[in-house]
Structure formats: structure tokens, C-alpha cells
Amino acid sequence: MTFLHICIVLAFFIVGLSTGAVAWRLIRGPSTADRAIATDMLGLLAICFAALVAAATGARAYLDIAFGIALIGFLAAVSFGGLLERASAPPPEPGE
User: Fold this and answer.
1) How far apart are CA 31 and CA 16, in angstroms?
2) d(Cα 80, Cα 85) in Å, to the nearest integer?
3) Which of 29, 43, 49, 81 is the right S-S partner for 35, CB 3.0 to 4.6 Å?
């Protein structure tokens, strides 16, 4: 095994542990904001996983997958931000 393979295996292990911790926060998060951040973090970990698979196999198609996940994750983060902003805004008073 080369040094690169050892680093990739170690990175897979770290990403796996991180995914477990983020999934725990997604399930147990006390607020909606915690769950939204955990969902965004899961997208980032999926990008890491796709990049690691690309590094391990040499297939560049996984980098395209990572790019697609990043685009969808960005749109989801913007949507969650707008949803949380609307939820925290005070309701308009009658007659306005």
C-alpha cells in the first residue's frame, strides 16, 4: 500500500465518523436551524465521499457528481435560509 492509499482509507474513516455525528445532530437537533445545518453538512460530506471515490478509483465522473451535489446543496441552503427568515419574522399587523 502506498502512502496515498493509506491517506484515502484514513479519510474514508474520518468522513464516515463525521457522517455518523451529523446524522445524530439531524435526528436529535433541538431546533430547525440545527437540522438545516446538519442537512447542509451531510451534503458537504457527500461531496467529500465522491471526491474520495474519485481519488481512489481514478474515475473523474465522481468529480462531476460532487459538483452536482454542491450545486444542489447551495440551493438547499438558500431555501432553508429563506424559510427560517420567514418563520422568524413577526406577522404583519392588520391594515398594513
Assistant:
1) 24
2) 8
3) 29
Q: Whole-angstrom Cα distance, residue 78 to residue 65?
A: 20
Say how far apart CA 95 and CA 23 lie, in whole Å: 45
Residue 33 carries which DSSP code? H
Q: Determine the Cα–Cα distance for residues 62 and 57; give it in Å rounded to an integer.
A: 9
User: Per-residue confidence of the chain (96 residues) as pLDDT tens digits?
Assistant: 899 999 999 999 999 999 999 999 999 988 878 888 898 999 999 999 999 999 999 999 999 999 999 999 999 888 888 887 887 777 777 876
Q: Whole-model pTM?
A: 0.81
Q: Is the distance from CB of 67 to CB of 54 less than 8 angstroms?
A: no
